[in-house]
Amino acid sequence: MNPFVAELIGTMLLIYLGNGVVAGVLLKNSKSEGAGWLVICIGWALAVVFAIYLAGPISGAHLNPAVTIGLAAVGKFPWQQVPTYIIAQILGAIIGATLVFLHYFPHWKKTEDAGLKLAIFCTAPAERVPFWNLFSEFMGTFVLMLGLSALGANKFADGLNPLVVGALIISIGTSLGGTTGWAINPARDFGPRIAHALLPIPGKGGSDWAYSWIPILGPILGGVAGTVFYSVFWG
Q: Terminus of the chain with fewer CB atoms < 10 Å: N or C?
């Protein structure tokens, strides 16, 4: 096992479980249909937890270009490895989204709303106002990296760190995620959006590429800002 493979498989698991809970809540005739926002937040948090347990010992479980770039910005990760990690994360996200498509295969035809199908793969704003949508993604990822930096400075019992990260994800999702669906991870949005464009999903509609730059740029800027902020004030 090497870091590239660990990041790829870890991100694949993250998206398979994370987008999987969204599919379960949104697709017709799923047993969890209509379970709601809190179930999605908890499902995503647990996806992060188990992906970290899987990839952490090998790659540090970045699973997110905003994490990789944020750490590199403060000298905690070598810049020369950044492209390798990001490529692995995006490829893993594409594979994970494809697995979600296959897992729920009979349900796509029964779901008529193309917007719901797209929401399973990638984010969209509740109110489409680009500046504020960008601000939401910036701040959500700022809090993510501020929290991750703080968690790294505290000592927990062996094996508990991923669980605490999961609690951070639930906090961000429930408190800040209602505006844009909280991508806070460019690979989490970009990879599945590519999968949505390529997969033969019945009645899927467009992939909303006009919005796609926001869940890429916002998290990258917010991730760097959050990491630098912590580094400046806490060292």
A: C
